[in-house]
TrEMBL record:
Alphabetical list of InterPro entries matching this protein: AllH-like
Organism phylogeny: Bacteria, Bacillati, Actinomycetota, Actinomycetes, Micrococcales
Protein name: DUF2877 domain-containing protein
Family annotation (Pfam families): AllH
Length: 314
């Protein structure tokens, strides 16, 4: 007699509230075989699932909250017999079923804490505040490539980061768009270094009250137009960042920046450095690039669009 596989259920610890529409929509739109999605990729701490064109991460809850992420008290996903391309069910918008070696793994969202990416108003920061934050980030280790490919691409990466620095300084939208496009897909890792730099840069630029906010349309165009030149995971991460959404550790860093909390800034930066092999360091490079440009804009006496409007009305 063939043994019957018993479903294994696990309750999520937390999940991105923005996924509610994605999951309920997927549950209503089944494929011809009755399934709703497929396993995109499997890693030790994360399994990525594709619902239509939306990438959803089911992650070990030792990883912090993040966009399009469901955190569960499980890891070692690559040892659970979950295979790339396997069919996935989304049931009722609050349950995901994945085929595994022992049958079916059911991830329940019922009762789990919902997370939303916090926003920060950085208009309170002065030129001096930005200089202090830059000094704190300067004390952190610089990113170093860890593979032969990464080392080969490092010189080009540095040159293109310098190109972005120049574009931000000149204030030309088309130059910023071109510089951002040149970074996409460049470097090593599941999320290439150039993409990680853009993630840090765009996430900070997308916060309320920044002078860099004026470049968001150009940065957004580059990110969306360049999605096919990098991996889906990286393209998704950059798209979230340009919408002001990143991992909680990044938002903690931004909150510490807003609050002028030097110790909090260093603690958050240390957590960011733990992301991937080089991703955290590259993201911090992007944040530092954004702070540098913001500092230069403040020093040059540039104003926010709404401030200019107020002057015209007075």
């Amino acid at each position: 007699m063939t043994p019957v596989a018993i479903p294994v259920a696990v309750s999520a610890t937390s999940w991105d509230a923005a996924l509610a529409e994605t999951l309920s929509g997927a549950a209503e739109r089944a494929f011809g075989d009755g399934t709703h999605g497929t396993v995109h990729s499997v890693h030790r701490r994360v399994v990525n699932v594709l619902f239509d064109d939306a990438l959803v991460a089911i992650a070990d809850d030792g990883i912090d909250d993040a966009p399009a992420t469901i955190r569960v008290p499980l890891s070692d996903w690559d040892a659970r017999g979950i295979r790339q391309g396997a069919a996935v069910l989304a049931v009722g918008g609050d349950r995901i079923e994945l085929p595994c070696a022992d049958g079916t793994l059911v991830v329940s969202l019922c009762g789990a804490v919902t997370w939303s990416a916090p926003r920060a108003d950085l208009s309170v920061l002065t030129t001096a505040d930005l200089a202090v934050a830059l000094s704190a980030l300067d004390a952190l280790p610089a990113p170093e490539p860890v593979t032969p490919f990464g080392r080969a691409a490092d010189e080009l990466l540095r040159a293109r980061i310098e190109g972005m620095r120049t574009a931000l300084r000149t204030g030309d939208d088309e130059a910023v768009r071109s510089a951002a496009s040149a970074l996409i897909g460049l470097g090593e890792g599941l999320t290439p270094s150039g993409d990680d730099v853009l993630t840090g840069l765009t996430l900070l630029a997308a916060q309320d009250g920044t002078l860099l906010n004026r470049f968001l349309p150009a940065l957004s165009d580059a990110v969306h137009d360049g999605g096919e030149r990098t991996g889906l995971l990286s393209a998704t991460t950059m798209a979230h960042a340009v919408a002001g959404r990143g991992r909680q550790s990044l938002h903690d860093l931004i909150a510490a920046l807003r609050d002028r909390d030097g110790d909090g800034l260093r603690r958050a930066a240390d957590r960011v450095l733990q992301i991937g092999h080089t991703s955290g360091a590259d993201i911090l490079s992007g944040i530092r690039l954004a702070l540098e440009a913001e500092h230069a804009a403040h020093s040059a006496g540039r104003t926010r669009p709404r401030d200019d409007e107020k002057k015209e009305q007075s």
